[in-house]
Amino acid sequence: MRKIFETIKAVAFEIDNAIKTEDLGYSDGENSSGEEQLKLDVQSDLIIEKAFANVASVKALVSEEKEGVLELSTTGKYTVCYDPLDGSSLVDVNLSVGSIFGIYEGELEGKNLVASAYVVYGPRIELVIATKEGKPMLYRAVGSEFKAVGEIFMNEKGKLNASGGTQQNWSSTHKAFIDKLFNEGYRLRYSGGMVPDLHQIMLKGGGLFSYPATSDKPNGKLRQLFEVIPFALMYEQAGGEAINHQGMRLLELVPAHPHDTSPCFFGSKSEIEALRVAYGIAQ
Ligand code: AHG
Predict the structure, then answer these.
(1) pTM for the whole thing?
(2) Terminal CA-to-CA distance of the chain, rounded, Å?
(3) Which residue is closest in CA terms to ligand 1's atom 19?
(4) How much is the average pLDDT of 196-210?
C-alpha cells in the first residue's frame, strides 16, 4: 500500500504541472458517460496509468476516462479506481480541481474499499489519505515533497451547505431541506468541483455536501467507484457520515457497472441526521 500512496504523490506533481502548462482544449473523444473529454482529462489519465503500470501490488485500474477494467497483472492484490481530473471543466476559469483514488481489494464494491486518497490542485497542492484505521491525514506539497500537516476531524455540526444539480430539477423534499438549512444560518459554499467542495467542508469542521437524485438525473451524477465511495471513507473516518437518499451508507454500495452513479450526501453527524428527518429515512 505504501508504494500506491507514493505513486499517488508522484502523479500529483505531474498532473499539477500539466494543469499549469498544457493546452486546455477538447480531445476528439468522449468518456463512457458520454461527456466530452478535455485533453487534460486524457493526459491525466495517461499519467496515472503509466505510473501504476510499475506497481506490483496493483492488479487492475478502473478510470472515469476509460470504459472497462484495465488488467495490469495477475499477481497484484488491489484495484485502483480513479477519477484523474475531477472538475476539469473548471480549469479554464482557474478554479481548484482534483484527482480521486479508491483502492479496493476483491470485488469492486463499497465494503471492499481499503483506502482512499484525493489531491486538490489549488493555490497549493494538498493530498488527503484515509484508511480504515484512524483519521484521514492531510499532506501539503512543499517543494517537490508532501509534508504531513495533521489529522482531519469533523465537528458534530458545521456551518456550510453545498448542494449540486440543477435546482429546477430538485425534488420538493430536497428543496425544502436545503432552504431550511439556509434559514437556520448555513452558508452556501459550492464551486462545482466535488474535491475542493468536500475538502472545504471537512477542513472547516463540517456542514453538508449533497448531490441528490434530480428529475433529469434520478441516480445522481457522481460515480460510485471513483467519487462517492472514496469520499464516504474520508467522511466516516473524519467523524462524519455519508449516506444515499434512502439512508444507506455509501460504503455499502454495490455498483453493477464501473460507471454507475448514486445520489450522495456527505456531512457532519448533525446535518446527516437532519437529512434523515427531512427525507423521512430516520433510522
Ligand atoms: P466535471 O468533471 O464534468 O466538471 O463535473 C464535476 C462534478 C463534480 O466535481 C461536481 O461536484 C459536480 O460535477 C457538479 O455538478 P453540477 O454542476 O450538476 O452541480
Answers:
(1) 0.95
(2) 35
(3) 164
(4) 97
